[in-house]
Every structure is written in C-alpha cells, then in structure tokens.
Amino acid sequence: MAVAQQNALLGPPSQSSRTLLRVVILLFIAGAAIASRLFSVIRFESIIHEFDPWFNFRATKYLVANGFYKFWDWFDDRTWHPLGRVTGGTLYPGLMVTSGVIYHILQALTIPIDIRNICVLLAPAFSGLTAFAAYLLTNEMTTSPSAGLLAAAFMGIAPGYISRSVAGSYDNEAIAIFLLVFTFYLWIKALKLGSMLWGALCALFYGYMVASWGGYAFITCILPLHAFVLICMGRYSRRLYVSYTTWYALGTLASMQIPFVGFLPVKTSEHMPALGIFGFLQLVGFIDYVRSAISGRQFQAFLITVLVATFGIGLAGLVALTSLGYIAPWGGRFYSLWDTGYAKVHIPIIASVSEHQPTAWPAFFFDLNILVWLLPAGIWLLYKELRDEHVFVITYALCGSYFAGVMVRLMLTLTPIVCVAAAIAASKLLDTYLVKSPSQTSTSEAGEKKAPKSADKTASPLGVSSMVSKLTIVGAMIVYLLMFVSHCTWVTSNAYSSPSVVLASRMPDGSQHIIDDYREAYQWLRQNTKEDAKIMSWWDYGYQIGGMADRPTLVDNNTWNNTHIATVGKAMSSREEVSYPIMRQHEVDYVLIVFGGLLGYSGDDINKFLWMVRIAEGIWPEEVKERDFFTARGEYRVDDGATDTMKNSLMYKMSYHNYQSMFPPGKAADRVRGVQLPSEGPVLNTIEEAYTTENWIIRIYKVKDLDNVGRDHFSAAAFDRGQKKKATKKRGPRVLRVD
Amino acid sequence: MRSLLSLAVLAAASVVSAVSVTGNRLLVVLDDVAEKESYSKLFGSLADRGFDITYDTPRSEDLQLFHLGERTYDHIVFLPTKVKALGPKLTPQILLDFVNAAGNIMVALSATTPASTSTVAFLAELGISLPQERTGLVVDHFNYDTVSASEKHDTLVLHNSKPVRYDMWDVFSLRDDEFLALPHTVGHTLGAGELLTPILRAPSTAYSYNPKEQTEAVDPDDLFAAGQQLALASAFQARNSARVTVLGSAEMLQDKWFDTKVAVEGGSKVSTKNAEFAKTLTGWTFQELGVLRVEEIEHRLKDSNETNPEIYRIKNEVHYQISLSEYRWDAWVPFNANPNDPPQLEVSMLSPFHRLNLAPEEHSATDRTRTYSTDLILPDQHGIFNLRVNYKRPFYTYVDEKCTVSVRHMAHDEWPRSFVISGAWPWISGIGATVSGFVMFCAIWVYSKPAAPLVKKTQ
C-alpha cells in the first residue's frame, strides 16, 4: 500500500528510482516498527521488563564486565542456592553476545552508551531487521514487488510479534524471530538455486539461531518436513539434495558448538527427523542415480527392496537406541504439544506457566487481526502456483497454526508466515484491482489515486475492471488496512507495553498512578540485608530478585531442578514445624511473597498457591496433598471456611499475618478473593515480619535463628507473649535424662 | 607516639580483661547486703581475680540489668532470697534477655529458703526443673556427714565424682580422696536439652522430698527425683555461649563450709574441697575457664599461596587449617583437644560430603594457639559448600565456623586435550585419514588431465 502511494506521486518510475523508493519505504517501515515499540519507554522509563529479561540483562552485564571466556565458564553461585547453576553452559548465549558486541562496537566508536539502554532497545532494533527479512522472504515467493513491502509492514506492526519485542522486553525472542525469518529466507534461496553457498549461509544463521533461542527446534523440524513433503510430491531434485545436505551437515556442526545444545542433535528425538531426512535424501539420491543406470523392471525390484529394508532397519534402530537410552525420548514439553492436558497431569511445572496454556480463540484475532482471514487466501493463491518454495509456506503455515493453537507462546512463530501469506493475498488483491485494467498497460504500477481516474475512461460497467468494483474493493481494503494499523497501535499501547515490574493504575480523576511495590521491596532487600542473604520465594520472582535486589535465591525462572522447586513448594505449603527445618537446611534468611489482597492484585501467591502444592505433591505425595487444601465441598477458600491445612500453611500465614490490623475489628477483607477474613489473624512463630511494601504487594519475612536457650520456637514465642508454662503434674512413666 | 598510646590502651585493656573473657562487672543479688560477710572467702577470691563486685537486693530501686539496651553487668550471682518473686527488675524475661545478651548467671539455691518464682520460671525455660512448691531437700542415708547431720542426713558428702561421659573435660571431677560437703541441698532435674550438662549428680542412694509435707514417707508418685537423675549442680551453656550454673546448696559456698571437716559413716574426718570447687565453678560460669577462641582460619589450594579464595573447582586439593586457643584463668593457651575426639571439618552442601578429623600440628612451647589441619579433595559436585567446623563440647564454649566457598565446574579449557586420552587415538587417526584422503583426492582431481573423448580416438 505504501509503495503504491509513493509511486503515485512520482509517476512511472525508472528502475533505479524504484530501488531507491524501496529502500526509503523499508527504512520507514523499520522506523514505524521501532517507534511503535517505544510506548513503554515513554510511559514508564527505560527499564527491563518482566522476568526472564532480568536474567538476560544480568548475564549481559556479567559478559560485558568479565569477557567472553569467563562468561562461557560462568558458575553462578547466586542462584539455586546451594546448588548453584552452571550458567555459562545452560543458556543460549546469542542474545547476550549480540548485545555485548554492539556495546563494544559503540565503545570503540567512542559512543558511551549504557549497557542497559542497549538491552532495552535491542528488541525494537531487531524488529526493523525482521521486517526486512520478511520483505526478502516474501520476494522469494512472488513476483509482485508490493507483496514484500506489505509483508515487511505487517511484520513490523503485527501484535503477535510486538508482544515479545517491545522496548525492554530483552528476551531471546527479541533476536530469534529475525533469525528465524532470515534463516527461512536463506533456505528458500538455497533451495531455489541449489547453491552450496546459500546452504552454508543458511547453516550459519541456523547456528546463530541455535545460539539464541530454544525455539531453534522449530527450524530443525520444519526444514526436514519441507524436504520430506517435496520428496513425497515427487519433487526431488539435485537442488534439494545440495541445499539440504549442506544445511544439515554444517548446521548440525554449528549447533553442537553451543554448550547447552552439545550432543543433543544426535541424541534426542526432537532432532531425529532432520537426521532421518538427511539419510533419506542420500537414499533417494542413490536411487536416482541407479535409475539412470539400470533398466526399468530391475529398478522397480531394487527400489522396493531398498526402501523396505532401509525403513525397517532405520525404524528398528531408532526404537532400539531409544529403549537402550542412547536417544532421549520426546521431552515433556513436546508431548504437551499433542495433548494439551498432558502437562497438567505429568509436569505441573510446565503447566503452571501461563504462556504454556492453550490459546483462546479470540487471541488469534487479537494478535493478528485481518491477517487471520488473509492467511487462507494467501495460502490458496500459493497453492495455485505451488512451486517448491510455496510448499514451504503452506507446510509452515499449517504446522504453525496448529502449534499456535496449542500453546499461547507459539503465536510468535506463527506470526511471520501469517504476515508473508497475508501480504501475498493483499498485494494480489491490490494489484488486481488497482492496475490490471485492460486499457492501462502503460502504468502497471499506478497508484490508487490515479487508478479511479483512469478507470473512468474505460467505463465498463461490470466485472473486475469496472470502476465500481475497483472503488469498492480498494476502498474496503484501505479501510481494513487502516483499521489494522489502529488495532495494532491500540493493542501495543494497551496490552503489551506494561513492564509488569511497575504497575499502572488510574486515579479517580483520570491521572496515572504508579504502583511501584516490586522495586520498593527489591530495593529494601538490596539496602538492608547482608550481601549473601538467601531469599526464598516462588520461582517466578527469582530472576527479578537476582537482577534488582542482587541477592542469592533458592529457585528462579530457569526451572532446571524440579526437586528444588518442589522443596520450596513444600516449605510454603506445610506447617511451620515442617517448613522451618527445610529453611534452615537451605540457609534461608528471608522469605518473600506477593500478596494482592489489599490492592486487588490477582497475580499473587495465594492464587498461584495450588501450583506450589501440586509441584510439591509430585515429589512428596505422602506429605503434601492437594485435596487437603480444598474444603469438603471442593472449594478453595481463604476465609473462615478454609481447611486447617490451608490455615496452617506457611503461605497462608505469611499472606494474612497482621492483615487484620489494617481494618476495623472483624472487617478484614481480601479484595482479590472477595471474601471476609477470620477476625483472628494467623500467628507466626518461626519467622518474623521484616518488611511490607506500601500497598502490601510484597511481604518479606525474616527466618528466626534457633532459640538461644534451646527451646522450640513455639514455647519461646509463648514465653515472650507472657504465657506461663503450665505446672505439669505428670502422671505415668517419667522422662529420664540419659547422659 | 600514637601507636605507643594505643599499645598502652591495649595493654590496659588486656589487664582488665585478664579476669574473664566477657568482662568483670559482677552483681550479687542477696537478701541483705550484710549477708555477704558469710561468703567473704568466696567474694574475696572473686575480687582477687579482678571482679568488680556490686551487692544488691531484689527490692532495690536502682537495680538495673540493662541501660540503654546494653548490659550493665557481665555476671550475676543469685544467693537465696526470702522474697517470693524477684520483682519487676529481675523478671524471668529480663533474665533471659540477659543470657541472650551473653551475660552469665550463677543461681545458688538452698533447701532452707524456697526458691523465688522468678528463678523457677527462668530455670524452667532452660529445661531445669525444681521440686514442687519450690522446696525440696536432698537426703542420702548412706553418704551423709556424720559430724553435722548425723540425725537428718541432709548434708551430703560427695567424692569420686566423674564426668557423665568418659570423653568429657574433667574440670569438675573429684578424686576418691577429695570430698565435697553439700548442706541443705535442693536437687533439680534436667530436661533432655543438649545445652545442659550435670556437674554434680546425687549418689544413687539419694532422694529428694518436701520437708514440710512429706514428713513421714514419700509416695512414689510424688517423688521428685532420686539417684543419678537428681542433679545437685548443673551447667547450661546457651547457643551464644552464655553460661548459667545452678548450685543446689548455697551454704557450701559459705566460709564455714570451706574450712570444716566432714566424715562419712565409718570414715575419718577430712577437710572439704569446697573452696576449690567454688573457685572452679565460679571461674567456669564467669568465663575464666573453657573459653575457646578461633584465632585464624585458612584454606587454600594445595601448592598455592592465595589464602581463603572464594571459589574452587571440583576435585581440587585443598588444605584447611584452624587455630584454636583456650582461656585458662588469665591467659590464652593452646587448645589441646581430646585426641579421641578431635575437631572435625565438614564439607557440606545440604548434607555433609566429607567429615574429616583435624589433626593437631606440631607447635612450640611459646605458641598461644594450636593449629589443626587437614588436606582434602573437594567432592565431584559443583555447588556452594560450607567448610564448617562445628565443635560443641560440654564445658567448652562453642566453635561453629563456616567458610562458604563456591565449587565450580570444570572450565572449557581445563579438560585434558584429546591427544592425551589414548582412547581418542582411533578417532584422531580417523580424522587424519579423512582429511588427507580428501586432500589427495582433490590433488588428483585437479592435476589429472581429463581423458580425451573416446570418439576422437577412434577417428
């Protein structure tokens, strides 16, 4: 659309001015992509968002401060206390290294820019590149010059991609989507040309992708699938052979250089399709050669023997290796892609993450808007032509749609191909109705303003080329596109630009009120606790505590050790007598919880509590039972009717400790759960309140030391309250002291 | 000049602190200040040892254990008082706070005066129980003093008292020919707490009864305690090493029981060891004895000069040493642990991976400390480990020293290179063969002249 407008002002352009125009338009698109991601910086400040980005930010700072090799061998002793984390070997370093390189380049150019600002603005900057990659990819699909520009524009502002790439969202996806699209572009290029050079380039960017995001497995599976579909369609060619084998051999070698990936490409089931297709291609290549050498009948017998034998041996080998343990079976996350209920039953830790939930249907429209219905049209248009590269788009779109429906987070991988297909459909429509009138051969690229005028002269009343239909279709399309732009802007501004570290609310007079409890609490920890004070909290807050408070944590968002998380879950969901020894053993100094009851903040720990119980129950089914937290009628309650297990759990006690003092007697209410609380608040003995933030969102408790004179904490607390020990007139056998 | 001055201050400070490790301000709480005369030898001995003694009664207005949150005394001695409770200045809470603030307390009881309710409540928190109604008298019809208590059998004569366990420090033990006289003793029982240690236990034939109520006989159900369960003097050491001792017989500290001679049935008259015992007991309570100090902890990589690094690698060889000294009356001397029960080093993460005996190193006579050391190989597990010496023995102050070190994994360049591993040679030669084969193939390919087309030849 943009290109059409530009061209209209200049009249029929020459080849070089077209190129110039394209560059200018692409620059504008990149500018728009970046600008629309800056809402959060303008509204709040240049701050890292959410949870994972805080770890990436911390890792980047470590990289910049200590250099690459230290980072490579980084043993992080400030997380997962006391296990520590081999951080250098368990992360995807692409993002941090990219930021580090940018930082050092800017330093070398004597531009003194803070590493934080690079991290904050990395995602918007790469979104501009993603738009460019989408342009290149689309240009490989169609001859229409406007489709690529449309795809770039869609890619730049589609909310499905913006959701993970606003300024401050410093996550792996920030650069990974660019790499994904660009790798696909290189793959298509290699396939089209049958070129080893492009195949090697594709492998190179595939390696970069592996270094950046766990989602590289998507490429690892989509490319073999594409190749397999092509072979099944009888489209085997030397081009396919050359490009695939080049990509696979070099790409696998490249991916194995990343410590976190290591030998996974030859050991896990997720990578087996790529290996299988590699072998299959050799076979097909060999058969192809044999066919040219021997006669038809012999060939048929030969073909059947070879195919059956190979498949039989290959399959048997795979099964045998898997059962012997040489090849890891499919991981839990993979199963949950086929059965959305799987994770909830078997791996609560995966199910507890909101972005692993199945997608709600409105989310598709929310994230993609008109692209949703342009996608099938684009697919159909490609299906009509069906060259090798079109097969790729169709395969990708089908898989991507399925996965996006299964997991919210995978909307991200669907978005690029939706943009490509939708751009093809839209450009076809616009091209048809704007320029393809019989009398208009000279100005094939005419713009929309000119088109109605010239259509006047032809004056044919019906059909595609009629003035009326052109006006209607083009007008409708313009309206839709404008609505798309406004929808994208609205979604970006309202849904995806909140840092979630800082909460914004509206005062009665309409002015913005910032709720800054998270940072208040983390700052308190930073300033008032020992440097090595261990903080226990639910794993959601681990990265933030590490990044903002700079204190060691027990568990964090890198959920590599389920048992350790279950230990924290058990400590939170058990009675104090059980929790205290656990906390002592793990040397916990402070416990941090999130409580939304006063403010009505629904993402608090009481609402997440059942996940803690479930995860703990997975390890200690005898000691923690989810059923005990529900009333006899199966309700999850926190008021007077709550079960004793609930009321005695550490989490409940910490949440409501002293809460009653905020209200007149008997009026204490929880605004999230919307219930009246018991008039008597819980009593804590083994821990004591250390800090509560302004809006009570974060509450920090200090774990008491062992009693100095050897009493248990309950009798010590009772003594401090002035309760006298009952004179125990013991009956029955005496308790004798044994020395 | 300044250094000279500070040296002088330091010297003065060391003179003052020579008395006890924790300070020399001693408060004696008794019924009537005049009563101190009967304990003159005891207090004289304490004053000689450098204590600054204040005498006060529980009724006194300006008695204060804390001023602006700081202790005003370092040690307290409670002698029997006739008041029912010790009053608002000496509530059980305040006494407990005093112990929590590392103050030492010695409670001396007597069967002739009921213990105050404050004392009973305070001791109950420590796990020490006194008889019902706060009164009780220990008698022993076999080990009594025939001189002073031939009728009532209420002056116990103890000898040959050994520590409750063979490997304990025998600071309070009595030889067979050493006698202690304990007149009018109140017995007490100890809870199961590990912070409590009996100093003197009653002979197996002794029992406790209430002289006011149980005049005729003692119902077995109402018996407070008997035999070895009945402690006559006990020591309590809080986790912060503050000490509390309970002595059942205050009178044994009086002057007259220091000089008197006692005799058991069928034995001759012998003089008591009460004076020595009182000195040891007060000395131990007020931290003049059995105070351990960690002088230095050093751990380092073997063959490295960098001490106490924060990070090691798995399977590193590490040398660990700790220097301990012990305070004996007025000087720090090297601490010699029981060779059968030496300090141990724990290398622990969640649970101990190693627990190693620390061996004493050779030392010269002039040393004031003794160094214990060991060499170890760190476990093959990365994580945050504590190098911990947790040495808690009865009658010694506690030593619990943790050095937290991170044990990291192997860095990428610390593994042996492939050519060092003999198992890798077939693969290395395979690589070599492939590479040279490829190069040779290329060379042949590049430098071989293409065969002339067959068609031309036939022509």
Automatic annotation (TrEMBL), chain A:
Q: State the pathway, as annotated in the record.
A: Protein modification; protein glycosylation
Q: Does the keyword Manganese apply?
A: yes
Q: What is its EC number?
A: 2.4.99.18
* GO MF annotation, one: dolichyl-diphosphooligosaccharide-protein glycotransferase activity
Q: Name one GO biological process term.
A: protein N-linked glycosylation via asparagine
Whether Lyase counts among this entry's keywords is: no
Of the GO CC terms on this record, one is: oligosaccharyltransferase complex
Membrane topology summary = Multi-pass membrane protein
Q: Which UniProt keywords apply?
A: Endoplasmic reticulum, Glycoprotein, Glycosyltransferase, Magnesium, Manganese, Membrane, Metal-binding, Transferase, Transmembrane, Transmembrane helix
Gene3D superfamilies reported in the protein's UniProt record: 3.40.50.12610
Question: According to its UniProt record, which reaction does this protein catalyse?
Answer: a di-trans,poly-cis-dolichyl diphosphooligosaccharide + L-asparaginyl-[protein] = N(4)-(oligosaccharide-(1->4)-N-acetyl-beta-D-glucosaminyl-(1->4)-N-acetyl-beta-D-glucosaminyl)-L-asparaginyl-[protein] + a di-trans,poly-cis-dolichyl diphosphate + H(+)
Concerning InterPro entries, the annotation shows:
Oligo_trans_STT3, STT3-PglB_core, STT3_N
Renumbered to this chain, region (Disordered) spans 440-460
Which compartments does it reside in?
Endoplasmic reticulum membrane
Q: Which cofactor does it need?
A: Mg(2+); Mn(2+)
Which EC class is the enzyme in?
transferase
- Regions of biased composition (Basic and acidic residues) lie at 446-456
Q: Which residues are listed as membrane-spanning?
A: 20-42, 92-111, 118-137, 143-162, 174-207, 213-233, 245-266, 272-290, 302-328, 363-383, 390-408, 471-492
* Oligosaccharyl transferase STT3 N-terminal domain location: 21-421
Q: Where is the STT3/PglB/AglB core domain?
A: 534-584
What does it do?
Catalytic subunit of the oligosaccharyl transferase (OST) complex that catalyzes the initial transfer of a defined glycan (Glc(3)Man(9)GlcNAc(2) in eukaryotes) from the lipid carrier dolichol-pyrophosphate to an asparagine residue within an Asn-X-Ser/Thr consensus motif in nascent polypeptide chains, the first step in protein N-glycosylation. N-glycosylation occurs cotranslationally and the complex associates with the Sec61 complex at the channel-forming translocon complex that mediates protein translocation across the endoplasmic reticulum (ER).
Q: Which family does it belong to?
A: Belongs to the STT3 family.
Protein name in UniProt: Dolichyl-diphosphooligosaccharide--protein glycosyltransferase subunit STT3
Lineage at the top is: Eukaryota, Fungi, Dikarya, Ascomycota, Pezizomycotina
From TrEMBL, chain B:
Q: Residue limits of the OST48 middle domain?
A: 303-449
Q: Does the keyword Signal apply?
A: yes
Pathway where it operates: Protein modification; protein glycosylation
Signal peptide residues are 1-18
Any one Gene Ontology biological process term? protein N-linked glycosylation via asparagine
Cite the OST48 N-terminal domain residue spans from the record: 25-285
User: So where does this one cross the membrane?
Assistant: 424-447
| InterPro entries hit by this protein | DDOST_48_kDa_subunit, OST48_MD, OST48_N
The record's principal subcellular location, in a coarse class, is endoplasmic reticulum
- Mention any one GO cellular component term assigned to this protein in its UniProt record: oligosaccharyltransferase complex
Tell me the membrane topology, using the record's own terms: Single-pass type I membrane protein
Q: Which UniProt keywords apply?
A: Endoplasmic reticulum, Membrane, Signal, Transmembrane, Transmembrane helix
The compartments listed are:
Endoplasmic reticulum membrane; Membrane
Q: What does the subunit comment say? A: Component of the oligosaccharyltransferase (OST) complex.
Family to which this protein belongs:
Belongs to the DDOST 48 kDa subunit family.
What does this chain do? Subunit of the oligosaccharyl transferase (OST) complex that catalyzes the initial transfer of a defined glycan (Glc(3)Man(9)GlcNAc(2) in eukaryotes) from the lipid carrier dolichol-pyrophosphate to an asparagine residue within an Asn-X-Ser/Thr consensus motif in nascent polypeptide chains, the first step in protein N-glycosylation. N-glycosylation occurs cotranslationally and the complex associates with the Sec61 complex at the channel-forming translocon complex that mediates protein translocation across the endoplasmic reticulum (ER).
Q: What is this protein called?
A: Dolichyl-diphosphooligosaccharide--protein glycosyltransferase subunit WBP1
